[in-house]
Amino acid sequence: MFLSLPTLTVLIPLVSLAGLLYSSSVEENFPQGCTSTASLCFYSLLLLIAIPVYVFFHLWTWMGIKLFRHN
Fold it and tell me: How far apart are CA 52 and CA 31, in angstroms?
């Protein structure tokens, strides 16, 4: 079963936000405890940053391929 792009566009940030809220409720020192790579909080914050960057560069590459193919 493959999910469509609009579904993933909504679903992935919501899952990431849920992970961030979960880690903020579980971690006793939330903002300061996010610097260790062993904590779940670090990866939930990293995921929030990495997803938009990945989407941007994926769309940039796709647009470059489309422009190259049509010119």
Answer: 22
Q: Is 55 part of a structural domain of the chain?
A: yes
Q: Which two tokens stand for residue 11?
A: 């679903």
Helices 40-70, 5-26: axis angle to 10 degrees equals: 160
Using CA atoms, how far apart are residues 20 and 25, in angstroms rounded to an integer?
9
* Average pLDDT of the segment spanning 39-64: 80
CB 51 within 8 A of CB 13: yes
**Nearest CA to 50 among 2, 16, 14?**
16
- Rounded to whole angstroms, how far apart are CA atoms 18 and 16? 5
Domain range for residue 65?
Answer: 33-70
Evaluate whether residue 54 is within a structural domain: yes
- The structural domain count of the chain equals 1
Residue 1 has pLDDT above 60, yes or no: no
